[in-house]
Amino acid sequence: MKKTNYIVLVLILIITACKKEVKEKKQLQEMNKISESAKRVRDYVKKDIIIAHRGSTFLTPEETEPAYRWARNIGADYLELDIQLTKDNQLVAFHDDDLKRTTNIKEIFPDRIDATINDFTLIELRQLDAGAWFNEANPEQAKESFKNLKILTLQDVIMIAEGNKIKRENGKPVKALINDTWNGNYKHEKDPNDNGNRPGIYVETKHPKSNIEKYLKEELTLLGWNINENPKQIKIQENKVNIADTNARLILQSFSPESIINLENHLPNIPKCFLLWKADMKGDFKETYAKAIDFAIANNAHIIGTSIAGEPNNYEELTSDWMAELIHESELLIHPYSFDTNEQFMEYSKRIDGVFTNRADLALEFYGRKKIISKDVLINLGY
Ligand code: G3P
Ligand code: CA
Fold first, then answer.
1. Cα of 337 to ligand 1 centre, how many Å?
2. Of 193, 283, 338, 348, which alpha carbon lies 20 to 30 A from 176's?
3. What residue numbers bound the domain in which 211 lies?
């Protein structure tokens, strides 16, 4: 082929590819937008929020007391937790379906190691050590005081957000008895090392078991965190995180479309995030992506939670420029997961509205809010 013919051919191919991209984008741009009432709820949520993913998976055993006390004291805007329902219908903060990765189930219930968390009562779960595994998996971050940590309830996490901790006597958690009976709950006390931050909570319904949303609504209402039903007033201080005393003290999230619908039925007027995961998105990718956004709009969600690519998680890219553009064109917010490095903050920060991060310390510094030595915060908390 002559050189000029070759150049013309290449140009034609480039122009065709560009036209296709423009056409596809144009099709996708003709998308729905969220309703006026959804905008009102969306606007409860502050911009550039720092969401402490499971407290922190980097510095502490995930979803345990040190993880959330650290996240609160360091100044994260939200404590992120995954919610599961126990056999006796209590709500616990726990990520996995089963207990193998992050507890000593092998030692305590050797014949039930494959059972799912829903097969255990709260009293049984409180017998497990949810911290020692971390020391083995992360020797550089290991601490003696991470041993014998408890799986937490939703109530425990809310108590931490409000400046408390589990009450201990002689190092042991104090049981909260009702009519001389213990149902697995502990008492709480004011955290002597609380520094006054009052973050919100960002709650994910995990692998929804039937009716988890109903129990979630009941518990949140009881604890004064359902803004629809007589929410409690939470004391805040100037120059501290104060999300716990706003209409966005609670944000709800789920990968499950069914759960997003159920959450809206039980807990309307509360910001909701529809989480996306590439493996769930079958068929033409751009169409499926647009459909997911449409689902969120149709069901009164306010935020899309997308994965980011790259180390260390190596998730699929669901937060590229065009994807963030589509989400914003629909007037939704975008909160991607999960940030572990400065490079990730630099790459994505301009096109997003908040971050799920295991490094709330790095995020605070990146956004110019605070420079802090994160390990000192743990030491000050007694770990
Ligand atoms: O909730 C956002 C992010 O936490 C989703 O991923 O698996 O860590 O719950 P995962
Ligand atoms: Ca989560």
1. 7
2. 193
3. 36-380
